[in-house]
Queue: 3 jobs
Job 1
Amino acid sequence: MEIKTTKLPENENLIVWEDRFAIGIPVIDGEHKRLVELCNKLYKAIMSSKSSGRKDAVRVALKECADYVRTHFSNEEKLMQVCAYKNFEVHKRTHAEFTKKVLEKCQNFENETFASSLEFVKFLYDWILSHIAHTDTLYVGDLKAYLSKR
């Protein structure tokens, strides 16, 4: 997917939450919605920085995104462990790789250009949607089965 900045004004969302993204676990769906909101906030900050030249809002949005990702992944991993999800280690590794990339972006923020920031938000867009729409659905059956026995 290519993000065309000429077609997306600063105040428009990059990702629009749709019910089809829901995995059926309310707490996780709520956290996924928050991740989408944070990606949109980062996108808007990046778009705003293009005209203003100021990166303060981008820095804040990126940090908020990084902090929330760690919280969400921790919560999700606890649920996977509780229900003995068989591919837990693989899923956890995926989370660790993503977190590493986000943290590297935070550490190297001062070297970011508008183009590299936009490329990163495209990465977030792709990763969030593919992770929610596919990867996270793989543990839902195990978690629902566990919850139904309680």
Note: Helices lie at 26-52, 56-82, 88-107, 114-135, 137-148.
Job 2
Amino acid sequence: MKILIVEDEPSLRETMTTALKKDGYVIETASNFNEARSKIGVYDYDCILLDIMLPDGSGLELLKELKTIKKSDSVIIISAKDSIDDKVTGLELGADDYLAKPFHLAELNARIKSVVRRKLNNGELAIEAGNVKIFPDKKRVIINGEAIVLSKKEYDILYYFINRRDYLITKESLAEGVWGDYIDQCDNYDFIYAQLKNLRKKLDEANADVEIKTIYGFGYKFVVK
């Protein structure tokens, strides 16, 4: 799961980054309005943690732009401004939640899981495709009623695909979603092929009725057989 933290205060940004990386998230950061604007225009995120008061602009303007360009990234506004007006404005502009500073990191993590689950899986705890079931809160995968063991990146790849079933996914999009935005600077994607090979083998061994199909010349597609 890929998250963008838009926060101008360095120590808080670093604290959030460290904590969320420990929980297995892929983290990108932006310290100001223009940096955040550039990132959301190019990359997709499962969730954006958005401060309202930035040194060169308003987080609410970024929220407006997200909706204007029809991005579906979940957004949690995180701000020291805790007035009713700010909350109402943010939610009316399309934010999924609002968390006032200061906050506990455990609550932030719970809010992230909640908004992403609502958006991707209609609020259900498990995500299902065929006989494959993923429990994101526990990072657990069940196939045919049996738990299977995946490496962190194998799980991340499966999670990325199961939320985008039947969509054509380029190797660049997969790499950015699982490894982070700066992965597009790599010379090749051999590391993706190795992880995909291992994941496909484990899915086959578990008799999963889903498949990550290679669409030659384009990328991949996750389908139920």
Note: The chain is about 40% helix and 25% strand.
Job 3
Amino acid sequence: MVLHVGDEAPDFTAISTDGSYFNLYKELEEGPILINFYIGDFGINCTNYMKKFIESYSKILDLGVKLVAINNDSLDSHIVFKNRLNAPFEYLHDEDKKIAMRYGAIVGPGYMTTGFTNREFYLVVKDRKIRFIWKSTTPKTLPNLDEIVEGIKKSL
């Protein structure tokens, strides 16, 4: 599946590192959500980019946007990763990559990480529409966080 700006975001429910169940459509009642798909916990690239993302997170919050990070690593792994990084946002467990597949957020063939969750961002607003998308072109491509923040600003 390939999603585009203007499409309705697929709804999902996933367990969060705070122990609750996160339901996208219910959470959208509170305001926009930035969904951050990423490859994995503890990998050097993901760890370094998450550290930088945590430093930039206040800029996203200032825009009234809530962030959730998601991949199919275990909930226990997410809890340790979140705590180690002291991340101010929740991580969601995507069992069997069902959510990533609905968003088309899977690394394609030809890469060592084929089949893993790709690095992608989806900004979803109250009307359930996707307003901004950023997708990694290769598994090693990391987002420019200033561009992500600017993309969110322009999309709200």
Note: The helical segments are 24-28, 44-62, 75-85, 98-103, 145-155.
